[in-house]
Amino acid sequence: MPNWMTEPTGGHTSYYSVSISPSAPTTAFSSGSSLIYDLEPSDAKEIKSIYLRLTISASGGDVQLPPASHLFERITLSSNRGIGDEFFRCYPINVVLWYYMTMTTEQREQWLKLGNAHVEHFDNESLDKYWYNNNSSYLRNGDSRDFYIPIPMNLFQMGEIDLRHISQPIRFKIELASGSDVALSGAVGNLSLDAVDMIIQSHEETAGDEEIKHANKTAMSHSYIYLDTEQVCVNDKSQTAGSVTKYNLDSINGAVASLVVLIKGSTNPVGSDRFDYYEIGDGSLDVETAFGKSLYGQGNPVKIGEIYKEFAEQTTAHPLQGVHLINYSENLKKAYAGGANGFQRYSGQKDVVAVEYGAVGTAEVHTIAVAEAAISGNYSLAVNGAVSDVIEFDDAVGVQKSQYELLDEVANKNYSATFSANFDAGASATITYDANRDGRVSNEIGVPRVVSTLKEGSSFIIPPASSSVTTYGKKGWATSSSRQVEVYALLFKEITIEKDGKICCRNL
After folding, report:
1. Cα–Cα–Cα angle for 267, 271, 275, rounded to 5 degrees
2. How far apart are CA 53 and CA 193, in angstroms?
3. pLDDT at res. 160
4. Among residues 332, 339, 232, 209, which one has the least CA distance to residue 287?
5. SS3 letters for 77-131?
6. Does 405 or 394 have the greater pLDDT score?
7. Number of other CB atoms surrounding residue 456 within 10 Å
8. Which end of the chain is more exposed for a tag (fewer CB within 10 A), N or C?
9. What pLDDT, in 10s, does the model give residues 439-467?
10. Predicted model pTM
11. Per-residue CA distances from 296 to 283, 285, 414, 443 (Å)
12. Does residue 205 have a pLDDT over 70?
């Protein structure tokens, strides 16, 4: 946990629930509404944390939802009802990083549950994937559930926003996701946004402490350092296996503690593409000036293994798949606590992120062999203890694929499997996985096998089957011109709260 710069010395913790008014339209996820709320001095006292609670219900059918971190596109905070300085921008990746930079393992696990998120671990790579849980991600017809989103701003944890001393309301603008970005499966029209509440954790001081703090706040201006975010999106470049592509950082201006590079699966990411982060294979990253001078690798681009190692060292957690951290800070957790302990200054001078994409990978192939072609019967596919629904001997290969990919062991790791044949066509069938994204599947979940099932009115007479690995997989990169690269700059800013309670901010 970061060592926050200030801590109250007396009193107790209280929670305020503030309903956003006017209320959000129940159809907000269909239209992609922006919700605006002005946090008033009367809403709470000294803020220690803020999180959003979205109450969502389903009627007319089940709907599969993304993690709560991706129920919005962007959240901004600005002073004086939006007329003053915009001093904080939050994107979904900021929430994901908040889980890792500011929380213990136990706290993170709890927040992931509250946020409909799931972290799937890959033992062979000591790597985690930020994803959804194959079962709990569904909001069932007739059910209602609360989804929680922390506002990842360290000024709150430092106790530096005291609404009793702020003279100008703080405007929250929440740009909601919509359509298939919210309804991963099922109809978005089946969803109702029933309530949006701000939950504010506040510290109630003793009368003496409150009097002293108020005197300190009004005696002079106070300034604090925090992390804001600037986003760069590029979707008009090709990414060729074994080659370097450069992405301009012209719009970034300020002292940057870290860059986060994400690669998404289309030029206009929708649905699960928004949080399905692509790896670059065995490639590397660097930051260069317009003249080719290295600003990060010091002349030697940093390999992906070192990028992941840096994430693990900064978070004391497993690295996240596809979250490429270019870190300039000596201690990123302390940076989250307001300590500017290392940064790279950007000033719009045509610096670039140089991404070297790895070589083409190898698809893993499994083979299921039977003694002879089947003439009737049914079966199930099983892997690592999970068993599929019943499959008929002559069902199309698409049925095999869908039933197999519905298994938790497969779905939670987002494996993609292609079946070559059903069991009335011959004595064997192969299962081929994604050549670049899935890697060594057998090391993670084993090899699928056919198991005997007995459906009422039928019998299992498919001959006994054996399973084996025909080809071991290796991750890589597939050349494409249909990917979006997003760069997030975590940059230091300074906020000043004047004696009269007005708010202004500047780049550090």
Report:
1. 80
2. 11
3. 75
4. 232
5. EECHHHCCCEEEEECHHHHHHHHHHHCCHHHHHHHHHHCCCEEEEEHHHCEEEEE
6. 405
7. 4
8. N
9. 999 999 999 998 876 555 444 445 567 89
10. 0.91
11. 15, 9, 32, 34
12. no
